[in-house]
Amino acid sequence: MTKIRRHLNTIGIVGFGLVLLAFGLVDVVRPMGVRFSDLTGRVVTMDTMIRIGILSIVVVGLNLLMGYAGQVSLGQAGFYALGAYASGILSTLAVRHKILIGVSDTWWWPWLAMVAGMALTGGFAYLVGRPILRLRGNYLAMATLGLGIIIYILGGQFSDITGGYDGLTGIPRLRIGGFVLWPMNRYYFVVWGAAIAAIVVALNIVHSRTGRALRAVHSSEVAASASGVDIERCKVQALVLSAVFSSLAGSLYAHFQSAVSPSPFSFRASVELVVMATIGGLSSIWGAPFGVGILFILRDLIRSRMEDVLHLRGGEYELIIYGVILVVIMIFMPGGLTSGTVDLIRGLRERRAARRDAAPPHSPPLRGEEAVSKRGKGRTSG
C-alpha cells in the first residue's frame, strides 16, 4: 500500500508541476496576446499565484506540526516573519549599515541570507520548542499565540534594524549571475519550484520512520512512549521543520515584495494559516496548496463578484459570506477538502460495488433439450 501511495505521489507531483509550468508559460509566451489572468477572468493573477505558492510552503510545515505531530500552533506567522526579516536585514547590510560591502552586493548573497535565515529560525524554534512543547491543549495554543505576538511586536521596534512599523525597504530581487528573477512571471517559477520541493521533502518525511513516529505521537503519546518513541524529540523536530519551511516562505515573500513590515505577520495571519491548513486537510500534505488556493480564490471571487450578483457592498458582507462557506465546508468535509474528496470518491465506488453485488444474477441461456421444451410449452400455451 505504501509503494502504491508513493507512485501516486510521484504521478501527482509530475502532473501538478506540469500544470503549474503550463500556467507560467502562458504568461511568459502570451499566445495570441492572452495572459494567464485572462484565462481566469482576471480573478486569479500571477500575483495571486505567487502568494498562493509562498503560503503553501508555510502550510506544508504547519500540516507536519498540527496534522501529523498533533501540536497546536497559533504563532506560525512569527516564524514566517523571522525568515522575512532575516533575509531583508542580511540582504540590505551594505546599503543600511555599510558593512560587508562587496560581499552583500554579490548575486549569491541573498541566497545565502535565505539559508542563514532558515538556520536561525530553526535554531530559535529548537530553543523555544523544548519548554513550550511540554504544554498541552489550550496551554500550548496560548503559548504559541504569545510567541507569535512577541515576534510581531519586535518587528515594529528597533527601526534602525527592522525599519519599525514603516517597514524595511530596498530588499534586492533575487538573481542568478546577471539574470534577474523578475518580473513576476519569472519569480513565479522560483516560488513554485520551492513549493514543490517543500511538498516532496514533506512527503518523504511523512513516509519515513520519523513520519511514523509523528503519527504515533499524534494518536497516543502514552502508546508511542511505550513503543520506544522519544516524544519530546519528535515534537521538537516537527516544530523545527515547520519553522524552517515558514522561514523559507518568509524569505521568498521579502524578495517578492522588496519590503517587509510587521502587518502581514499579525495574529490574524496565524489564524488564516490554520484555516488554510484545515480547509485543505491537516493530515494531508497535498491539502496545503489546495487549501491556500481555495481560500485565496474564494476571497477574491467574493470581493469581485458579490456586488454584481447580490448587489451588496462592504467588507462586513464579504466576511459573512466567507464565513458561511467555510462553515459549510467544515460541516460536510471535516477532514478537509482533500481528504473529503477522496472519501467521497471512495464512498461512491463502494456504493456502486454494493449495488452490483446486490443485483439479481442474470439467468443463463437455455441449451439443448431445455430450450426445445421451452419453445414447445410456448406453442402449446398459444
Specify the overall morphology.
globular
Which value, in Å, is the CA radius of gyration? 27 Å
Helix vs. strand class? mainly alpha
- Major beta sheet, strand line-up: 1-4
Q: Can you describe this structure?
A:
The protein has helices at residues 2-29, 36-39, 46-68, 76-91, 93-96, 109-132, 137-155, 159-162, 184-206, 209-219, 221-226, 231-257, 267-280, 287-310, 315-332, 337-358, 368-381; strands spanning 168-169, 175-176, 179-180, 259-260. The protein has 382 residues and is mainly alpha-helical. The protein is globular and about 85 Å long. A hairpin with a 2-residue loop joins strand 2 (175-176) and strand 3. The protein contains 17 helices and four strands. It has a domain at 2-266. The chain starts with a helix and ends with a helix. The protein is 74% helix and 2% strand. Helix 3 packs across helix 13 (267-280), helix 3 (46-68) packs across helix 14 and helix 6 (109-132) packs antiparallel against helix 12 (231-257).
Layout of SSEs?
Layout: H1 2-29, H2 36-39, H3 46-68, H4 76-91, H5 93-96, H6 109-132, H7 137-155, H8 159-162, E1 168-169, E2 175-176, E3 179-180, H9 184-206, H10 209-219, H11 221-226, H12 231-257, E4 259-260, H13 267-280, H14 287-310, H15 315-332, H16 337-358, H17 368-381
Antiparallel strand pairs: 1-4, 2-3
Compose a concise summary of this entry.
By secondary structure, this protein is an all-alpha fold.
